[in-house]
From TrEMBL:
UniProt entry tagged with the keyword Endoplasmic reticulum: no
Name this polypeptide is given: FZ domain-containing protein
UniProt GO MF annotations: calcium channel activity
Ranges in coiled-coil conformation: none
UniProt lineage: Eukaryota, Fungi, Dikarya, Basidiomycota, Agaricomycotina
Keywords for this protein: Signal
Keyword Signal: yes
């Protein structure tokens, strides 16, 4: 018979082993550095590959440390710790977040060293796909702003299955192009907006921390929107913002995945172009347009209240173009091994919408002269997107804004006269070139050339160089995450 002291020791060891809780797969566990199990460790399930992620929900001068081992999750396995050892790895935190991916054939252990941190909330998660906590590479998309509004879209969260037309049925979307059915796997997606002066971008970049921070503005409209072939997004029309103010925006998914930050500025109090959005036939239009104030007390224009004098010609052009396009054999053997009639129609729709709905703009208050003040003439030989600013020849990028006086006719003759001065943001030349590349030659769709008259009606030299070198422009993009918008691309 075993001695009584040894029996008690074995019993205590059994209790000790059973005290190590399991981390459930694909589940977020919320914890606090003052309320941890004893010992402060967790069992990781057996799996060929797992992603372990950590997110701090509050900041502190003293932070806990996290260690993982993947030898086994056996009750007799020692906790990993700062002294290292075989198969012991520290999860390094950056801006409050960290993850480690590895194999756990026999399971593993995640240990928490509080390191003197007092009452610090944090989250742990184990996932069999991508980390549940992460900062995604896909950024939110800024449609546009007015003096007190902003139109924001999340990154695409669900693909849309679009059937490519094949012989002999070359069926293309109708001119009115209704949105597909609502998404099936929409998750909890939220938007956070903060004045840039609050310094939110310099703090912890974790979902649980950002969720706890105050967000300004009011959501005037929230919907799901498929603005392009990338898929479904959440779209927010925000109101209650302050004129001429810099803002920082994030989009959170399930309060664990962080997209952002992006930065934007509201327009001045005198800006008078309303927002236009949620047009199924022009799904990429999400910006301010030189139109009178929306009718019936509406705060923006959408498909329900746009003037028919503006939409009827556009739908007619789209229908006629589609009819002409489908007289051509769209199959790979007759057309192209790369693109088809559906690509041609899609790019033509984008181009038609961009020139039908002129975009308003406004120079940045930090760079009030950062635009081309003199409109290009029909014989212009290309727009230089730079301007010398000092004797050393340093240059800065100028946006493709064009002042429009009250007496100037609108670019689209079906747009009503605004009755006041505004700035027009020209479409990017690439918007036209995309149609030229995607459509069959018999349509004879032509764009102005970079070295002759493109600058009279398009922004040149931003995405592609003024010589036409792809992605060789001064910015490489039509707009960036810092709120700069160089030309209009939808």
């Amino acid at each position: 018979m075993l001695p009584e002291s040894l029996i008690f020791l074995l019993a205590a060891t059994t209790v000790y082993a059973q005290a190590r809780p399991n981390l459930e797969l694909n589940t977020v566990t919320s914890l606090n550095s003052q309320r941890l199990p004893q010992p402060p460790s967790f069992a990781i399930p057996q799996q060929n590959k797992l992603c372990i992620s950590v997110a701090l929900c509050s900041d502190s001068t003293t932070l806990p440390r996290f260690f993982v081992s993947n030898i086994s999750n056996s009750d007799s396995q020692d906790d990993p710790g700062p002294n290292g050892g075989p198969n012991v790895f520290e999860i390094v935190l950056e801006r409050g977040q960290g993850n480690w991916t590895g194999t756990f054939v026999n399971g593993g252990i995640l240990a928490v060293d509080s390191n003197g941190a007092s009452g610090l909330p944090f989250e742990l998660a184990v996932a069999d796909d991508t980390p549940l906590h992460e900062n995604t590479r896909d950024l939110p998309f800024l449609g546009d702003t007015t003096s007190n509004q902003a139109l924001l879209l999340s990154p695409a969260f669900q693909k849309i299955d679009i059937e490519k037309p094949i012989y002999p049925s070359y069926t293309l979307p109708t001119a009115d192009n209704p949105q597909p059915g609502q998404p099936t796997n929409s998750s909890n997606i939220t938007v956070i907006i903060s004045p840039t002066s609050s310094g939110l971008a310099d703090k912890l970049q974790t979902g649980c921390f950002l969720s706890s921070q105050p967000s300004v503005g009011t959501i005037a409209n929230e919907t799901f929107w498929a603005r392009d072939e990338q898929g479904w997004r959440s779209q927010w029309l925000m109101g209650g913002l302050t004129p001429s103010t810099n803002y920082t925006a994030y989009v959170l998914q399930n309060s664990t995945k962080v997209s952002g930050p992006i930065f934007f500025s509201t327009k001045s109090a005198s800006f008078n172009c309303p927002l236009v959005h949620s047009l199924p036939y022009c799904p990429g239009v999400a910006y301010s347009v030189p139109l009178p104030a929306p009718p019936s007390g509406a705060i923006s224009y959408d498909s329900s209240n746009l003037p028919t004098d503006l939409t009827t010609p556009l739908l007619s052009y789209m229908a006629n173009f589609t009819t002409t396009l489908t007289t051509f054999a769209c199959g790979r053997d007759w057309y192209s091994p790369i693109v088809g009639c559906d690509d041609c129609q899609r790019e033509y729709r984008k181009w038609l919408c961009s020139i039908s709905f002129t975009r308003c703009g406004e120079p940045s208050t930090e760079n009030p002269n950062g635009f081309t003040a003199v409109p290009g003439q029909p014989s212009a030989t290309g727009l230089s997107a730079t301007k010398q600013t000092d004797a050393a020849g340093a240059q800065r990028v100028l946006s493709a804004l064009r002042p429009q006086e009250t007496r100037d006719p609108p670019r689209n003759p079906f747009l009503p006269q605004l009755g006041s001065r505004y700035n027009m943001l020209l479409p990017c030349l690439e918007q036209c070139n995309q149609v030229d590349r995607a459509c069959p030659p018999f349509l004879q769709f032509k764009c102005p050339t970079n070295d002759f008259n493109a600058a009279a009606s398009y922004g040149v030299g931003y995405i592609d160089s003024s010589d036409g070198d792809q992605n060789g422009g001064l910015t490489g993009v039509a707009q960036d995450r810092w709120g700069n918008v160089w030309c209009n691309l939808i």
